[in-house]
Amino acid sequence: MALPASVSFARLRWALAAAVLGASAGATAFGVSEILPPPGAVARGVRLGGVRVAPGETARAAAEAAAGRVLARRLQVTWGSEALVSASAAELGATVDVDGLTRAIESVGRRGDLTARLDQALEARRGAVSIPVRVELPVEPLAGRLERLKEERDTPPIAARLDLATHAATAHAAGRYLDVYAAAEAAARALEDPSSPDAVAAPAFEIEPRASTEVVAAIDTSQVVSRFETHFGFTGDQAGRAQNVRRAATGMDGVVLMPGSVVSFNANVGPRSEENGFAEAPEIYKGEIRPGIGGGTCQVAGTLHAAAVFGGVDVMERANHSRPSGYIRIGLDATVVYPTVDLKLRNPYDFPIVIHAAVDKGTLAFELLGRRHPATVSFATATVGTADYKRRIEEIAGLPEGKVVLKQHGIRGVSIKKTRTIHLAGGPDRVEVTTDTYPPTLEIYQVAPGTDVEAALPPLPDSRTAENDHKPPVGR
Predict the structure, then answer these.
(1) Are 377 and 425 in contact, with CB atoms under 8 Å apart?
(2) Helices 5-22 and 114-125 meet at what angle, rounded to 10?
(3) d(CA 368, CA 438)
(4) Ramachandran region of residue 112, left (φ > 0), alpha (ψ -120 to 50) or beta?
(5) How many whole angstroms from its chain centre is CA 99?
(6) Alpha helix (H) residue ranges in 294-345
(7) What is the pLDDT of residues 388-434, one digit of tens each?
(8) Are strands 199-201 and 74-79 parallel, antiparallel or unpaired?
(9) Domain coordinates of the chain in residue numbers?
């Protein structure tokens, strides 16, 4: 019966080794010299990264050639059918340890006792010794190339919401993220295997939202944790602003705060654009009232912020307006600008909280709902500083001589200390002290060119004036 080729060769190899070792001294020396690599030479038949080392080629030259082949190889990192990155291994920052590779080549036929060395040399001759070319591929260069593309393609989890009218939960969706570290590892493996494709699929990983459809459907909303309402105009020239209030409130209605989780106003409401359902309305920009898409959104953020304050919810991110708002108590307002200025809230309790928004004609109300009423909250403010406003004069060609127009009321700046005391049921009180600063708002007059401003305009109030006589306009 014929033996497998590998077994036959193994017997032949060991028979040859035994014959060499059992021969006379002179014959042994001759046989060994024929099989083992001579000093400075590479064992015959050694392969490097799948390529046979040429006869007479030094270990160093072979290692450098193999490293050059690997580093010159071009790879594509793909996402589906799209090529995200196309670059050589060297351009991606890959390196090969040429010194280590040289030592590995030189060691074939030179490790262990004579029998072991003969075995290595004979294995090399039959093409069974192939030294891999190990590649170090740092993640940073590839991550830099993928950073913008990752931001465009990553999709965060979509949590389920609760429809308070039917107590039905919406469908949730897992988030999908491009895994840059796994992409670098896959690229390094491909570079080490000459037979692998030149296209490497960027791996992705998924994250399920905590507020899944099943979890949200089972939430107990029987108790009102807190409630806050504000009022707004909704007819005539206020119609656009009213539309924005309703649109932004809808974006937060039914949002669930799981215990310990943080929710973002901007992430749920989205960009303030006509495509996203927002209209043009007055808004505050750099201290001045001007038309803008989404004016009125900040009233929604402020009303929600106030409900969070009185519910004992943690306010993780919030910025006050550049001026006090007419629709809400000073210190409770919140300005939002998509996507840079946000309102973020965290649920500190051991049960889920559902945000419920209701808009009825000129009333906006937010309720935080859960299984129990965990705390009673008191809120106090104290003025700790004021600053006088300044005046700006705008000369308007075509304005009749002697005509002056008050374009914008000035508002004195103020700093307030806010104290929130949270009386937890069955626990110690928690006291939070923070400061809000509202800078002065410019008073702006428009006059005809050449107007004697000092004679035509009233004097500016100074710090001795107890209060600004001008009522602050309604903010965004």
Answers:
(1) no
(2) 140
(3) 28
(4) left
(5) 40
(6) 297-310
(7) 999 999 999 999 998 999 999 999 999 999 999 999 988 889 999 99
(8) parallel
(9) 36-158+175-207, 219-456
